[in-house]
Write a structure and sequence with these properties.
Number of domains: 1
Oligomer: single chain
Strand content: 25-35%
CATH class: Alpha Beta
Number of strands: 7
CATH architecture: 2-Layer Sandwich
Order of helices and strands: EEEHHEEEEHHH
Strand order of the largest sheet: 2-1-3-7-6-5-4
Length: 175
């Protein structure tokens, strides 16, 4: 999926665009080859930069060639046997002189918050500020999920103190 948006200083909300223009945010989530080729043709970014962010085993890194590539991992929930577990996935941010391009393997709360106006004073044309706000959002979700895991560990430990069942020991190890 490709979503092209823009928000300037005088825009109250984010504006959806049909085509790539200077100062826009291009968000690629599980992009098709056609979508990647379109973005590459319009922006001139290297295909390797986009592909790096789509590698689920990609490690966080920072790279400057023609454009700036930042890859970091963000937490996300996944369903596993009726239990919710947490994992991290990579998100790539490519910053060019005209665009901010985000690339991810799935929709994440980190980026969704920008579309839902939960992040105040973000503007797609202020590329470095926008980058810092995305990183701040990722940090928020790491802390949120770590608190959730800590609470779950505390509850499981209390249960273990009352009865030593294999199920509870395994749950604690999983956490």
């Amino acid at each position: 999926m490709i979503k092209i948006t823009k928000r300037n200083l005088n825009d109250e909300n984010i504006v959806d665009l049909e085509d790539i223009t200077s100062g826009c945010w291009i968000n690629l989530q599980i992009p098709s080859e056609k979508e990647m080729d379109y973005v590459i043709e319009k922006t001139g970014v290297l295909k390797e930069l986009i592909n790096s962010a789509l590698d689920e085993n990609e490690r966080p890194r920072f790279d400057i060639e023609k454009d700036v590539l930042i890859i970091f991992r963000v937490p996300c929930e996944k369903m596993e046997n009726s239990d919710v577990s947490l994992e991290t996935i990579p998100i790539g941010i490519i910053i060019t002189s005209d665009y901010v391009i985000t690339v991810s393997l799935m929709e994440t709360d980190v980026l969704k918050d920008f579309y839902e106006n939960k992040v105040k004073n973000f503007y797609t044309s202020k590329r470095i500020r926008f980058l810092m706000q995305i990183l701040s959002s990722a940090n928020y979700y790491f802390v949120k999920y770590l608190d959730k895991i800590e609470d779950e560990i505390d509850r499981t430990e209390v249960t273990l103190m009352q009865s030593m069942r294999n199920k509870d020991v395994i749950r604690l190890f999983n956490l």
